[in-house]
Amino acid sequence: MTAGVLLLVTLMGFESMGVGAAMPTLAADLHGTALYAWPFIAFLAASLASVVVAGRLCDRSGPKLSLFTGPLLFVAGLLVAGSAPSMAMLLIGRVVQGLGDGMLIVPIYVVVGLLYPERDQPSMFGALSAAWVVPSLVGPALAGWCAEHLTWRWVFFAIVPFALLGWMLVLPVLRTLPQHTTRGVPVRRALLWAAFASAGGIAAISWALQARTAAALVTGAIGIALLAPSVRVLLPPGTLRARRGLPVTILARGLLTGTFFAAETFIPLTLSRVHGYPATASGLPLTLGALGWAGASLWQSRRPGLPRDMLVRRGFLLSAVGIGAMTLIAPTWGPAWLTAPLWTVAGAGVGLATSSLSVLTLSASSDADRGFNSSAIQVSDLLGAALFTGLGGALVTGLSSAEAPTAGVVVLDLLMVGVALFGAAVTRSRCRT
Known about the structure:
It is built from 18 helices and no strands. By secondary structure, the protein is mostly helical. Helix 3 (64-82) runs antiparallel to helix 8. The longest helix has 30 residues, at 370-399. The two termini are 29 Å apart.
Protein backbone atom coordinates (compact mmCIF):
# COMPACT_ATOMS: atom_id res chain seq x y z
CA MET A 1 0.00 0.00 0.00
CA THR A 2 2.79 2.41 0.87
CA ALA A 3 4.57 1.90 -2.46
CA GLY A 4 1.41 2.14 -4.54
CA VAL A 5 0.11 5.23 -2.76
CA LEU A 6 3.44 7.03 -2.98
CA LEU A 7 3.64 6.32 -6.71
CA LEU A 8 0.17 7.76 -7.30
CA VAL A 9 0.94 10.84 -5.22
CA THR A 10 4.17 11.31 -7.19
CA LEU A 11 2.20 11.25 -10.44
CA MET A 12 -0.30 13.75 -9.07
CA GLY A 13 2.68 15.93 -8.25
CA PHE A 14 4.00 15.68 -11.81
CA GLU A 15 0.63 16.75 -13.16
CA SER A 16 0.26 19.66 -10.75
CA MET A 17 3.76 21.03 -11.24
CA GLY A 18 3.62 20.51 -14.99
CA VAL A 19 0.29 22.26 -15.53
CA GLY A 20 1.40 25.24 -13.46
CA ALA A 21 4.56 25.66 -15.52
CA ALA A 22 2.89 25.09 -18.90
CA MET A 23 -0.21 27.21 -18.29
CA PRO A 24 1.03 30.47 -19.90
CA THR A 25 1.86 28.62 -23.14
CA LEU A 26 -1.25 26.44 -22.95
CA ALA A 27 -3.61 29.38 -22.40
CA ALA A 28 -2.06 31.34 -25.26
CA ASP A 29 -2.28 28.37 -27.64
CA LEU A 30 -5.98 27.84 -26.88
CA HIS A 31 -6.68 31.60 -27.02
CA GLY A 32 -7.77 31.53 -23.39
CA THR A 33 -5.38 33.93 -21.65
CA ALA A 34 -8.33 35.86 -20.23
CA LEU A 35 -9.40 32.61 -18.52
CA TYR A 36 -5.93 31.95 -17.11
CA ALA A 37 -7.13 31.09 -13.58
CA TRP A 38 -10.06 28.92 -14.68
CA PRO A 39 -8.24 25.61 -15.31
CA PHE A 40 -7.10 25.80 -11.69
CA ILE A 41 -10.52 26.84 -10.37
CA ALA A 42 -12.31 24.07 -12.32
CA PHE A 43 -9.91 21.46 -10.93
CA LEU A 44 -10.29 22.71 -7.36
CA ALA A 45 -14.09 22.99 -7.48
CA ALA A 46 -14.44 19.44 -8.83
CA SER A 47 -12.01 18.15 -6.23
CA LEU A 48 -14.08 19.80 -3.52
CA ALA A 49 -17.20 17.88 -4.52
CA SER A 50 -15.24 14.67 -4.96
CA VAL A 51 -13.50 14.69 -1.57
CA VAL A 52 -16.87 14.88 0.16
CA VAL A 53 -18.20 11.92 -1.79
CA ALA A 54 -15.00 10.02 -1.02
CA GLY A 55 -15.23 10.85 2.67
CA ARG A 56 -18.80 9.54 2.85
CA LEU A 57 -17.79 6.36 1.01
CA CYS A 58 -14.88 5.83 3.38
CA ASP A 59 -17.05 6.23 6.47
CA ARG A 60 -19.79 3.98 5.14
CA SER A 61 -17.83 1.21 3.43
CA GLY A 62 -14.10 1.86 3.87
CA PRO A 63 -11.50 3.28 1.47
CA LYS A 64 -11.52 0.48 -1.12
CA LEU A 65 -14.02 1.88 -3.62
CA SER A 66 -12.47 5.35 -3.62
CA LEU A 67 -8.96 3.99 -4.11
CA PHE A 68 -10.25 1.88 -7.00
CA THR A 69 -12.15 4.69 -8.74
CA GLY A 70 -9.92 7.72 -8.16
CA PRO A 71 -6.98 6.80 -10.42
CA LEU A 72 -9.31 5.85 -13.30
CA LEU A 73 -11.08 9.22 -13.19
CA PHE A 74 -7.72 10.97 -12.99
CA VAL A 75 -6.51 9.16 -16.13
CA ALA A 76 -9.73 9.97 -18.00
CA GLY A 77 -9.27 13.66 -17.16
CA LEU A 78 -5.68 13.58 -18.41
CA LEU A 79 -6.81 12.19 -21.76
CA VAL A 80 -9.58 14.77 -22.20
CA ALA A 81 -7.37 17.71 -21.21
CA GLY A 82 -4.46 16.55 -23.34
CA SER A 83 -6.61 16.25 -26.46
CA ALA A 84 -8.58 19.47 -25.87
CA PRO A 85 -9.04 21.60 -29.02
CA SER A 86 -10.39 24.55 -27.02
CA MET A 87 -10.34 26.11 -23.57
CA ALA A 88 -13.86 24.79 -22.92
CA MET A 89 -12.78 21.20 -23.51
CA LEU A 90 -9.69 21.75 -21.38
CA LEU A 91 -11.91 22.87 -18.51
CA ILE A 92 -14.00 19.69 -18.87
CA GLY A 93 -10.83 17.62 -18.66
CA ARG A 94 -9.71 19.53 -15.58
CA VAL A 95 -13.08 18.87 -13.93
CA VAL A 96 -12.70 15.11 -14.49
CA GLN A 97 -9.12 15.27 -13.19
CA GLY A 98 -10.36 17.07 -10.10
CA LEU A 99 -12.97 14.39 -9.46
CA GLY A 100 -10.25 11.73 -9.61
CA ASP A 101 -7.92 13.73 -7.38
CA GLY A 102 -10.54 14.06 -4.65
CA MET A 103 -11.54 10.40 -4.84
CA LEU A 104 -7.89 9.46 -4.34
CA ILE A 105 -6.55 11.79 -1.66
CA VAL A 106 -9.21 11.17 1.03
CA PRO A 107 -8.79 7.36 1.21
CA ILE A 108 -5.02 7.91 1.46
CA TYR A 109 -5.59 9.86 4.68
CA VAL A 110 -8.01 7.21 5.91
CA VAL A 111 -5.50 4.44 5.21
CA VAL A 112 -2.78 6.30 7.12
CA GLY A 113 -5.09 6.63 10.13
CA LEU A 114 -6.25 3.02 9.80
CA LEU A 115 -2.96 1.17 9.31
CA TYR A 116 -0.20 3.30 10.82
CA PRO A 117 0.45 3.83 14.56
CA GLU A 118 0.10 7.44 15.68
CA ARG A 119 3.85 7.81 16.25
CA ASP A 120 4.53 6.72 12.65
CA GLN A 121 1.94 9.01 11.06
CA PRO A 122 4.27 12.07 10.89
CA SER A 123 6.77 9.90 9.00
CA MET A 124 4.11 8.76 6.54
CA PHE A 125 2.96 12.30 5.90
CA GLY A 126 6.61 13.24 5.47
CA ALA A 127 6.94 10.46 2.90
CA LEU A 128 3.87 11.75 1.07
CA SER A 129 5.48 15.18 0.91
CA ALA A 130 8.75 13.58 -0.24
CA ALA A 131 6.83 12.00 -3.12
CA TRP A 132 6.71 15.52 -4.56
CA VAL A 133 10.51 15.83 -4.63
CA VAL A 134 11.12 14.23 -8.05
CA PRO A 135 8.15 16.02 -9.65
CA SER A 136 9.45 19.25 -8.15
CA LEU A 137 12.96 18.70 -9.49
CA VAL A 138 12.07 17.83 -13.08
CA GLY A 139 8.33 18.49 -13.49
CA PRO A 140 8.28 22.25 -14.20
CA ALA A 141 11.42 22.19 -16.31
CA LEU A 142 10.26 19.16 -18.30
CA ALA A 143 6.79 20.62 -18.78
CA GLY A 144 8.27 23.94 -19.86
CA TRP A 145 10.59 22.20 -22.32
CA CYS A 146 7.69 20.21 -23.80
CA ALA A 147 5.61 23.37 -24.13
CA GLU A 148 8.46 25.19 -25.89
CA HIS A 149 9.85 22.46 -28.15
CA LEU A 150 7.11 19.80 -28.52
CA THR A 151 3.59 20.49 -27.30
CA TRP A 152 1.98 21.21 -23.95
CA ARG A 153 -0.29 18.18 -24.56
CA TRP A 154 2.49 15.86 -23.42
CA VAL A 155 2.18 17.40 -19.95
CA PHE A 156 -1.04 15.37 -19.70
CA PHE A 157 -0.46 12.40 -21.99
CA ALA A 158 2.93 11.37 -20.58
CA ILE A 159 1.44 10.69 -17.14
CA VAL A 160 -1.28 8.30 -18.33
CA PRO A 161 0.70 4.99 -18.54
CA PHE A 162 2.40 5.58 -15.20
CA ALA A 163 -0.91 6.41 -13.50
CA LEU A 164 -2.36 3.14 -14.78
CA LEU A 165 0.69 1.33 -13.40
CA GLY A 166 0.15 2.91 -9.99
CA TRP A 167 -3.50 1.86 -10.07
CA MET A 168 -2.52 -1.73 -10.87
CA LEU A 169 -0.05 -1.77 -7.97
CA VAL A 170 -2.74 -0.69 -5.51
CA LEU A 171 -5.39 -3.16 -6.70
CA PRO A 172 -3.97 -6.35 -5.08
CA VAL A 173 -3.48 -4.56 -1.77
CA LEU A 174 -7.10 -3.45 -1.49
CA ARG A 175 -8.16 -6.99 -0.58
CA THR A 176 -5.88 -6.98 2.47
CA LEU A 177 -7.44 -3.93 4.15
CA PRO A 178 -9.23 -4.61 7.46
CA GLN A 179 -12.95 -5.27 7.29
CA HIS A 180 -14.88 -2.02 7.65
CA THR A 181 -17.91 -1.70 9.90
CA THR A 182 -20.56 1.01 9.59
CA ARG A 183 -21.70 0.63 13.21
CA GLY A 184 -21.94 4.02 14.86
CA VAL A 185 -21.26 5.97 11.69
CA PRO A 186 -23.54 9.05 11.60
CA VAL A 187 -25.84 9.48 8.63
CA ARG A 188 -25.14 12.79 6.86
CA ARG A 189 -27.68 12.87 4.05
CA ALA A 190 -27.01 16.55 3.34
CA LEU A 191 -23.35 15.97 2.55
CA LEU A 192 -23.72 15.10 -1.12
CA TRP A 193 -26.01 18.04 -1.81
CA ALA A 194 -23.65 20.36 0.04
CA ALA A 195 -20.64 19.01 -1.88
CA PHE A 196 -21.99 19.87 -5.32
CA ALA A 197 -23.64 23.08 -4.13
CA SER A 198 -20.33 24.32 -2.77
CA ALA A 199 -18.51 23.42 -6.00
CA GLY A 200 -21.11 25.35 -7.99
CA GLY A 201 -20.92 28.21 -5.52
CA ILE A 202 -17.16 28.51 -5.93
CA ALA A 203 -17.43 28.54 -9.72
CA ALA A 204 -20.20 31.16 -9.62
CA ILE A 205 -18.33 33.43 -7.21
CA SER A 206 -15.09 33.13 -9.20
CA TRP A 207 -16.88 34.03 -12.44
CA ALA A 208 -18.67 36.94 -10.80
CA LEU A 209 -15.41 38.33 -9.42
CA GLN A 210 -13.86 38.38 -12.88
CA ALA A 211 -16.85 39.31 -15.08
CA ARG A 212 -17.97 42.43 -13.13
CA THR A 213 -21.33 42.85 -14.89
CA ALA A 214 -24.91 43.07 -13.64
CA ALA A 215 -25.46 39.42 -14.51
CA ALA A 216 -22.25 38.57 -12.67
CA LEU A 217 -23.55 40.25 -9.50
CA VAL A 218 -26.64 38.05 -9.59
CA THR A 219 -24.53 34.97 -10.27
CA GLY A 220 -22.19 35.86 -7.41
CA ALA A 221 -25.13 36.27 -5.03
CA ILE A 222 -26.42 32.85 -6.06
CA GLY A 223 -22.94 31.43 -5.52
CA ILE A 224 -22.77 32.84 -2.00
CA ALA A 225 -26.25 31.49 -1.27
CA LEU A 226 -25.08 28.03 -2.34
CA LEU A 227 -21.69 28.12 -0.66
CA ALA A 228 -22.51 29.57 2.77
CA PRO A 229 -24.88 26.84 4.03
CA SER A 230 -22.84 24.13 2.32
CA VAL A 231 -19.68 24.97 4.23
CA ARG A 232 -21.51 24.56 7.54
CA VAL A 233 -22.39 21.00 6.53
CA LEU A 234 -19.01 20.03 5.08
CA LEU A 235 -16.84 21.28 7.94
CA PRO A 236 -16.93 20.48 11.68
CA PRO A 237 -19.14 22.79 13.78
CA GLY A 238 -17.26 25.89 14.86
CA THR A 239 -14.74 25.88 12.00
CA LEU A 240 -15.61 29.34 10.70
CA ARG A 241 -15.48 30.67 14.27
CA ALA A 242 -12.01 29.11 14.81
CA ARG A 243 -13.21 27.07 17.79
CA ARG A 244 -10.39 25.43 19.71
CA GLY A 245 -9.32 21.91 18.71
CA LEU A 246 -10.42 20.23 15.49
CA PRO A 247 -12.39 23.21 14.07
CA VAL A 248 -9.47 25.67 14.11
CA THR A 249 -7.19 22.92 12.79
CA ILE A 250 -9.43 22.46 9.76
CA LEU A 251 -9.70 26.22 9.25
CA ALA A 252 -5.91 26.61 9.41
CA ARG A 253 -5.40 24.20 6.52
CA GLY A 254 -7.61 26.27 4.25
CA LEU A 255 -5.89 29.52 5.18
CA LEU A 256 -2.41 28.02 4.79
CA THR A 257 -2.76 26.20 1.48
CA GLY A 258 -5.13 28.79 0.05
CA THR A 259 -2.69 31.68 0.48
CA PHE A 260 0.24 29.64 -0.83
CA PHE A 261 -1.41 28.30 -3.99
CA ALA A 262 -3.13 31.59 -4.82
CA ALA A 263 0.23 33.37 -4.81
CA GLU A 264 2.01 30.52 -6.60
CA THR A 265 -0.52 30.37 -9.44
CA PHE A 266 0.61 33.74 -10.75
CA ILE A 267 4.38 33.30 -10.37
CA PRO A 268 4.92 31.71 -13.84
CA LEU A 269 2.66 34.37 -15.38
CA THR A 270 4.67 37.15 -13.70
CA LEU A 271 8.02 35.76 -14.75
CA SER A 272 6.97 35.11 -18.34
CA ARG A 273 4.97 38.27 -19.00
CA VAL A 274 6.75 40.84 -16.82
CA HIS A 275 10.33 39.58 -16.95
CA GLY A 276 10.31 37.73 -20.28
CA TYR A 277 11.33 34.32 -18.91
CA PRO A 278 10.79 31.28 -21.15
CA ALA A 279 8.38 28.58 -19.96
CA THR A 280 11.18 26.37 -18.65
CA ALA A 281 12.70 29.04 -16.43
CA SER A 282 9.38 30.47 -15.21
CA GLY A 283 8.51 27.10 -13.66
CA LEU A 284 11.73 26.84 -11.62
CA PRO A 285 10.36 28.62 -8.50
CA LEU A 286 7.58 26.02 -8.34
CA THR A 287 10.29 23.38 -8.16
CA LEU A 288 12.12 24.99 -5.26
CA GLY A 289 8.89 25.85 -3.46
CA ALA A 290 7.83 22.22 -3.55
CA LEU A 291 11.30 21.12 -2.45
CA GLY A 292 11.09 23.48 0.50
CA TRP A 293 7.68 22.00 1.31
CA ALA A 294 8.98 18.42 1.17
CA GLY A 295 12.16 19.21 3.10
CA ALA A 296 10.33 20.92 5.95
CA SER A 297 7.77 18.12 6.09
CA LEU A 298 10.53 15.52 6.36
CA TRP A 299 12.26 17.56 9.04
CA GLN A 300 9.16 17.68 11.24
CA SER A 301 8.51 13.95 10.67
CA ARG A 302 11.78 13.12 12.47
CA ARG A 303 10.82 15.20 15.48
CA PRO A 304 7.53 13.71 16.74
CA GLY A 305 8.04 15.24 20.18
CA LEU A 306 7.76 18.85 19.00
CA PRO A 307 4.46 20.60 19.78
CA ARG A 308 2.37 20.52 16.62
CA ASP A 309 0.67 23.87 17.26
CA MET A 310 4.08 25.56 17.50
CA LEU A 311 5.08 24.12 14.12
CA VAL A 312 1.80 25.34 12.62
CA ARG A 313 2.35 28.89 13.85
CA ARG A 314 5.95 29.01 12.59
CA GLY A 315 4.83 27.59 9.26
CA PHE A 316 2.33 30.42 8.81
CA LEU A 317 5.02 33.01 9.58
CA LEU A 318 7.53 31.53 7.12
CA SER A 319 4.87 31.38 4.43
CA ALA A 320 3.97 35.03 5.05
CA VAL A 321 7.62 36.02 4.58
CA GLY A 322 7.89 34.19 1.25
CA ILE A 323 4.59 35.51 -0.11
CA GLY A 324 5.39 39.03 0.99
CA ALA A 325 8.71 38.89 -0.85
CA MET A 326 6.85 38.18 -4.11
CA THR A 327 5.60 41.79 -4.12
CA LEU A 328 9.19 42.81 -4.88
CA ILE A 329 9.31 40.49 -7.90
CA ALA A 330 6.09 41.60 -9.58
CA PRO A 331 7.34 45.00 -10.93
CA THR A 332 9.58 45.13 -13.97
CA TRP A 333 12.42 46.47 -11.80
CA GLY A 334 12.11 43.56 -9.35
CA PRO A 335 15.02 41.10 -8.92
CA ALA A 336 13.37 38.17 -10.70
CA TRP A 337 16.32 35.86 -9.99
CA LEU A 338 15.40 35.93 -6.29
CA THR A 339 11.99 34.36 -6.91
CA ALA A 340 13.20 30.76 -6.63
CA PRO A 341 15.04 31.01 -3.27
CA LEU A 342 12.36 33.22 -1.76
CA TRP A 343 9.60 30.85 -2.81
CA THR A 344 11.54 28.03 -1.16
CA VAL A 345 10.97 29.84 2.15
CA ALA A 346 7.22 29.96 1.54
CA GLY A 347 7.18 26.28 0.61
CA ALA A 348 9.10 25.35 3.76
CA GLY A 349 6.54 27.16 5.88
CA VAL A 350 3.64 25.29 4.29
CA GLY A 351 5.45 21.94 4.59
CA LEU A 352 6.17 22.55 8.25
CA ALA A 353 2.53 23.26 9.05
CA THR A 354 0.45 21.04 6.73
CA SER A 355 1.84 17.73 8.00
CA SER A 356 1.37 18.89 11.58
CA LEU A 357 -2.23 19.84 10.86
CA SER A 358 -2.81 16.41 9.30
CA VAL A 359 -1.48 14.69 12.43
CA LEU A 360 -3.64 16.89 14.66
CA THR A 361 -6.71 16.05 12.57
CA LEU A 362 -6.18 12.30 12.80
CA SER A 363 -5.50 12.49 16.54
CA ALA A 364 -8.91 14.11 16.96
CA SER A 365 -10.67 11.44 14.84
CA SER A 366 -12.23 8.06 15.58
CA ASP A 367 -13.12 5.16 13.29
CA ALA A 368 -16.63 6.60 12.97
CA ASP A 369 -15.59 10.04 11.67
CA ARG A 370 -12.10 9.56 10.23
CA GLY A 371 -13.45 9.73 6.67
CA PHE A 372 -15.51 12.86 7.38
CA ASN A 373 -12.60 14.63 9.08
CA SER A 374 -10.16 13.62 6.34
CA SER A 375 -12.66 14.93 3.82
CA ALA A 376 -13.12 18.14 5.82
CA ILE A 377 -9.42 18.95 5.82
CA GLN A 378 -9.32 18.48 2.05
CA VAL A 379 -12.49 20.57 1.66
CA SER A 380 -10.81 23.34 3.63
CA ASP A 381 -7.70 23.08 1.44
CA LEU A 382 -9.73 23.29 -1.74
CA LEU A 383 -12.04 26.04 -0.54
CA GLY A 384 -9.10 28.20 0.42
CA ALA A 385 -7.19 27.54 -2.80
CA ALA A 386 -10.22 28.00 -5.08
CA LEU A 387 -11.55 31.16 -3.46
CA PHE A 388 -8.18 32.86 -3.12
CA THR A 389 -7.15 31.85 -6.66
CA GLY A 390 -10.45 33.18 -7.96
CA LEU A 391 -9.78 36.41 -6.10
CA GLY A 392 -6.35 36.53 -7.69
CA GLY A 393 -7.83 36.11 -11.15
CA ALA A 394 -10.27 38.94 -10.44
CA LEU A 395 -7.48 41.24 -9.21
CA VAL A 396 -5.23 40.50 -12.18
CA THR A 397 -7.97 41.12 -14.75
CA GLY A 398 -9.52 44.01 -12.83
CA LEU A 399 -6.45 46.00 -11.78
CA SER A 400 -4.17 44.99 -14.64
CA SER A 401 -4.21 42.29 -17.33
CA ALA A 402 -2.77 38.86 -18.00
CA GLU A 403 -0.20 40.50 -20.29
CA ALA A 404 0.90 43.02 -17.63
CA PRO A 405 -0.23 41.54 -14.28
CA THR A 406 1.96 43.53 -11.85
CA ALA A 407 -0.68 45.63 -10.08
CA GLY A 408 -3.08 42.74 -9.50
CA VAL A 409 -0.32 40.40 -8.33
CA VAL A 410 1.04 42.92 -5.81
CA VAL A 411 -2.40 43.48 -4.26
CA LEU A 412 -3.08 39.74 -4.16
CA ASP A 413 0.24 38.96 -2.45
CA LEU A 414 -0.28 41.66 0.18
CA LEU A 415 -3.75 40.30 0.95
CA MET A 416 -2.38 36.77 1.24
CA VAL A 417 0.29 37.97 3.69
CA GLY A 418 -2.48 39.41 5.85
CA VAL A 419 -4.39 36.13 5.79
CA ALA A 420 -1.26 34.14 6.68
CA LEU A 421 -0.54 36.43 9.65
CA PHE A 422 -4.14 36.01 10.77
CA GLY A 423 -3.65 32.25 10.58
CA ALA A 424 -0.56 32.46 12.77
CA ALA A 425 -2.48 34.48 15.34
CA VAL A 426 -5.66 32.40 15.41
CA THR A 427 -3.83 29.07 15.79
CA ARG A 428 -1.71 30.11 18.73
CA SER A 429 -2.20 27.32 21.31
CA ARG A 430 -5.67 26.59 19.86
CA CYS A 431 -4.90 23.58 17.67
CA ARG A 432 -4.35 21.31 20.66
CA THR A 433 -7.11 18.76 21.09
